[in-house]
Amino acid sequence: MATFIDVHHGMAGITAEQLNEAHSADLAIQDEEKVTFERAWADPEDGVVYCLSEAPSAEAVQRVHERAGHPADEIHPVPLTA
């Protein structure tokens, strides 16, 4: 499995409740794509949401997000961590 960080733009004003709902929607179907969403962060002022996941591919991450109703604008592999 690889690690990915994905970015969603255009989410200005997102609330903690909305972030939790979106994250829960991903968690509900993640197993179907063998993805594990670890965490999500949001900056309501800038309208940016970040998600950390482990997945077989960036495409698998995007499929989950698309089915959950919030496709990612960017998906970045994270090949090194400290």
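Second entry:
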Amino acid sequence: MAKFMDVHHGMKGITKEALMEAHRADLAIQADEKVQFERAWADPASGEVYCLSEAPSADAVRRIHERAGHPADEIHPVPLMV
């Protein structure tokens, strides 16, 4: 499976609690698409949220985020990690 970093824009002012709630919504249904969300980060000042996942495809990641109620604006493959 491949790694993906997705980006959500426009979430200015997001709180830690809201980020955890969104992450839990993804975790609750991730198995439907064989996605494993590993971690999420947010910058409340800019409204940017980033999620790292392992999935069979970017489309699988996109579908989970859409179903969870927070569509990703960008999804990038992460072919190399250290």
